[in-house]
Specification:
The protein has four helices and 16 strands. It is of the alpha+beta class and about 250 residues long. The strands form two sheets. The protein has an eight-stranded mixed β-sheet with strand order 2-3-4-1-5-8-7-6, with helices on one face. InterPro entries: Anthracycline_SecMetBiosynth, Glyas_Bleomycin-R_OHBP_Dase, Glyas_Fos-R_dOase_dom, VOC_core. This is Glyoxalase.
């Protein structure tokens, strides 16, 4: 993955934290046709990589104690320690301090001022996903929040993102490239029990068929397939352990 294509400030990696690693991996292998690398030793958390057609598309490992199964979005950074300081200065919270992962790189986990968790990745040997925007691969990352203005200020200070759009949905840009979206949860009248969150979208050939397959595999469909005019069709689903993600099929 060339730095020119995915510069710092671009989401480049996602991973699954789950309460049942074996069942979770089996679910996604069947749903997306992924394969799974051998897990790392227990002392390294049992982390493993998902691949599609031999190319890296994401990771998986056990959820932290007390955590809920989830997909985490990681944004590439040139300096994780510097980003951690920017997060503090902008009113966010450092959940996991920058930590070197052998020779792979450096990661950190943060919480933005609106309550959403996200990660950053500083490249080492591992430079993120190797396949994007193809069936079974990451295609979009979207923040759901009840304070779009506060989120825009925060991520602008951290990554240099600017907002394009208005009303209930904005697209965040890095220079002239759109890198992520931001959805107003108040406008969607989402229940207060749903916190601010980053939602990971995976590309599929047919969102309706994939949503049905999710149900057949023991998952749930939280938002049935619907059209995005001029773009495609999407659905929001959850795996059997409860990790929420989205499916998107372009028109």
């Amino acid at each position: 993955m060339a730095d020119e294509t995915h510069p710092p400030g671009t989401p480049t990696w996602v991973d699954l934290s789950t309460t049942d690693v074996d069942a979770g991996r089996a679910f996604y292998q069947t749903l997306f046709g992924w394969t799974n690398d051998d897990p790392a030793p227990p002392e390294y958390g049992g982390y493993s990589m998902f691949r599609k057609d031999g190319k890296l598309v994401g990771g998986s490992g056990p959820v932290m104690d007390g955590g809920h199964p989830n997909w985490t979005t990681y944004v590439r950074t040139a300096d994780a320690a510097d980003t951690a300081q920017k997060v503090r200065d902008a009113g966010g919270e450092v959940i996991v301090e920058p930590m070197q992962v052998m020779t792979s790189g450096t990661m950190a986990i943060f919480k933005d001022p609106t309550g959403a968790y996200f990660g950053v990745w500083q490249n080492g040997d591992h430079t993120g996903a190797e396949l994007f925007n193809a069936p079974g691969a990451l295609t979009w990352n979207e923040l759901g929040t009840r304070d779009v203005e506060a989120a825009t200020r925060f991520y602008g200070a951290i990554f240099g993102w600017t907002a394009k759009g208005e009303n209930n949905y904005v697209q965040w840009q890095l220079g002239d490239k759109t890198v992520a979206g931001c959805d107003d949860m108040n406008a969607r009248q989402m229940p207060e029990s749903i916190p601010a969150h980053w939602l990971v979208y995976f590309a599929v050939t047919n969102s309706d068929e994939s949503a049905e397959k999710v149900k057949e595999l023991g998952g749930t469909v939280n938002m049935p397939p619907m059209d995005i005019p001029g773009m495609g069709r999407f659905a929001v689903v959850a795996d059997p352990q409860g990790a929420v993600f989205a499916l998107f099929s372009p028109s």
